[in-house]
Amino acid sequence: MSLEKFISEAISPWMKNEGYESEIVLSSRIRLARNLKDYSFPIISTTDEAHLVVKQVKEHFEGKDYDRYGPFELLEMDEMKPNEKRILVEKHLISPQLADESKKGAVLLSSDEAISIMVNEEDHLRIQCLFPGFQLNEGLVLASGIDDWIEEKLHYAFDEKKGYLTSCPTNVGTGLRASVMMHLPALVLTKQLNKILPAINQLGLVVRGIYGEGSEALGNLFQISNQITLGKSEQDIVEDLRGVVLQLIHQERAARELLLQSSKLQLEDRIYRSYGVLAYARTIDTKEASQMLSDVRLGIDLKILTGISAIILNELMILTQPGFLQQYAGDILSADKRDERRAKLIRERLKLEIDKN
Q: Which residues are annotated as a binding site for ATP?
């Protein structure tokens, strides 16, 4: 296994499976923030301390298996090129912060990329488990198991009253962030989402863009996650999020039905126009491509478009990001060249899918 394996394919192996409610919930993620006892937290630690944390993780876990996951491989940020790190961000395997700001950062990855453990990001460890579709409980079980597995070798910073100690006070307690990536095009088209978002925030949840905090909601993809980690159990946090996500699924389905009943011709026109642009455009930027891929994905889910796999659209959403485009080109590309290559890649990939069917 090598870095090349993790950056050569847009779709992680775990993404090729379909999960519950996968038409609307693309993925579920459980993330645990943990720090090691007797070490300064990453935000104030020295480079030498950060190096010792990486060394411990490498000694105890690199090359090891957990259950059916593994062997794990450690990738160190200072040994990677900027574009290689960017690709890992685009695949949601590391955060932009780990790629850009961390000193002596690293990531421990399972072979199927379903488990990603960031080292020396905001906290010493960020344990992340990813599942296709709506599988928060399954993610929690796996993350808890990995957490226990790590704690057999490393000692966590923990307080009996406060719980797990973290760099940011908002993570103190369970250190748990549960989130889902949702495709909500109908709620956006019917202008209902702007009314729903304030209510979600009042429930202690937050809605972010495709790459988390500070990112844009490209292609009608929204990340819904908890904000409160203290005073609730891990299971309660997950169940609270599950309840809201189930409501959003119901409302998105209702909005899709409304569009079919009240403006089917306009909806079909939008979907086919987007497909036409993707199939024939000679230049297209990230934002436009994401929006049109969202339209086509909606068309597939509503059976308006046939002969195209929804997984292909998931693949293209990642494959057409700047990091992957430059990786395949083998060079740093200007914005115009990226737009040209993005359009060509989409055309060729859609043609391949149509020819296959």
A: 27-31, 92, 126, 177-181, 208-213
